[in-house]
Specification:
- With about 100 residues, the protein is α+β, with helices and mostly antiparallel strands.
- Helix content is about 15%, strand content about 30%.
- It has one helix at about 30-40, and strands at about 1-5, 15, 45, 50-55, 65-70, 75, 85.
- Strands 2-1-7 form a three-stranded antiparallel β-sheet, with no helix packed on it. It has a two-stranded antiparallel ribbon with strand order 3-6.
- The longest helix has 13 residues, at about 30-40.
- The relative contact order is 0.25.
Length: about 100
């Protein structure tokens, strides 16, 4: 998980999963692998387990659907972008220990 910078307008200081949008012509799994590489610099194995989906409201009133997968780290050193201030590796059951966005 990554902790969004406290300076961020949308959910600043909250813990979130790395993520982003699916680009035209891209499937969900390819988008997830690309976003992980872009946002935190890591590669994961292509074998994934779908855990759940959720919907959350953004500050501007729009909504987003999130898909949560369980992944296994393959390689890469975690590097955070300017929108994040911390990271941690968690097990699925540990999610309830974090101040996350509503969902």
């Amino acid at each position: 998980m990554i902790k969004r910078s406290a300076k961020e307008d949308h959910y600043g200081g909250k813990w979130v999963f790395p993520g982003g949008k699916v680009e035209k012509g891209e499937d969900v799994i390819k988008a997830m692998l690309r976003e992980l590489k872009e946002e935190v610099g890591v590669d994961v194995q292509r074998k994934v387990s779908f855990l759940r989906s959720y919907t959350f409201l953004r500050n501007d009133g729009s909504s987003t659907i999130g898909l949560v997968f369980c992944l296994k780290y393959k390689k890469g050193k975690v590097r955070l972008d300017k929108n994040s201030e911390d990271f941690c590796w968690i097990l699925p059951e540990e999610i309830y220990n974090f101040d996350t966005i509503p969902g």
